């Protein structure tokens, strides 16, 4: 993923009307890199996620027992290790492996963080009501997140890049108007092609022309683009949690890319406490 905005409310209850987690995310990737859209994995039946066919991992997913994880790359073109391990397995290992508390898993990842190219990793156990973050380019250890609206792009958590600020504010506005906005509205809001003004662009070591096109929430270039948008909502109810997730993708699973992507998959299930 390259842009994630989310509202995390660990104290949410059925009576409060708030969702435990409301999230929307864009996956930006090279068009030549094949991936499978969101599905239940055959080799890890409890995992629901897309799959990167080059590295075998994923960018965002959930599990039947209430785990959640997502990853963004950290943009640092001058600090790329060509033989670094694939970052997508950091997500899939959390979802498919032996169940660990999010902070324990992130601390284990941090011990090997230097081996990877730059990343941000979100890991949550929704039944524990714990959501943690670790960035391997941050001068801070892994930590559990406080309640509130947060954002991740290709820098550290809540770094105020224009698209992150705009989409975080847009999510706040949506929730203010409707505590449980529809997944379609969350997806449509994140698919914003507007480019930031030059004076607001970050300087990450790429050309100003590239900074411009990457400043849009929804990216469209001949070789690199927003490949999918995912919306997720987790709500508390009497017996546990209900989870709804929807993905809009440019690939129906046959690797025939259609731009902009309009193929949709949606899933819903309950997680018992």
Give a verbal description of the structure.
There is one protein chain. The protein has 273 residues and is of the alpha+beta class. The chain has a single domain, classed as Penicillin V Acylase, Chain A. It is built from 5 helices and 13 strands. Strands 3-4-5-6-7-8-9 form a 7-stranded antiparallel β-sheet, covered by helices on one side. The protein is globular and about 50 Å long. The mean pLDDT is 96.
Q: Helical proportion?
A: 10-25%
Mean pLDDT: 96
Query: Can you say what the CATH homologous superfamily is?
Result: Penicillin V Acylase, Chain A
Form type: globular
H-E string: EEEEEEHHEEEEHHHEEE
The counted number of beta strands is: 13
In total, how many domains does the architecture comprise? Answer: 1
Pfam family, one: TANGO2
InterPro entries: TANGO2 (IPR008551)
Protein name: NRDE family protein
